[in-house]
Amino acid sequence: MLSASKAAERAVEHVTAMTGRSAECVVGVERTGEDGWRVTVEVVETRRIPDSADILAAYDTEVDADGELVGYRRARRYLRGRVEKG
Fold first, then answer.
1. In this structure, what DSSP letter does residue 81 have?
2. Burial class (CB in 10 A: 0-12, 13-18, 19+), 49
């Protein structure tokens, strides 16, 4: 059985490989049934100076019980430091 931390680690590896961009952090992990995980990974899409102007993206991924990528999609893009409302 794949642990939450190992699923997050594998999701970061997959998103980095698929996008060619560096992962900033994992912002969400949840189990999907008995055999998989949904992991949200934050990625730096565009670096700017100052870094508070960086453009970030959140990618929703699904990994199976073996840590293999089942699916991923970019859920949203936003400026670093921008607070979500609601």
1. T
2. exposed
Tell me the torsion sign for CA atoms 83, 13, 1, 64: positive
Which residue, chain included where needed, has tokens 């699904």? 62
pTM: 0.89
- What distance in Å separates the CA atoms of residue 52 and residue 39, rounded to the nearest whole number? 25
Give which of 60, 78, 9, 68 is closest to 35, Cα–Cα. 68
The pLDDT assigned to 81 comes to: 75
The enclosing H or E element of 43 equals strand 36-46
pLDDT computed for residue 85 by the predictor: 67
83 has pLDDT over 80? no
Q: What span, in angstroms and rounded, lies between the C-alpha atoms of 70 and 36?
A: 9
Contacts of residue 33, defined as CB under 8 A and 6 or more positions apart, other chains included, come to none
Which amino acid makes up residue 69? Answer: L
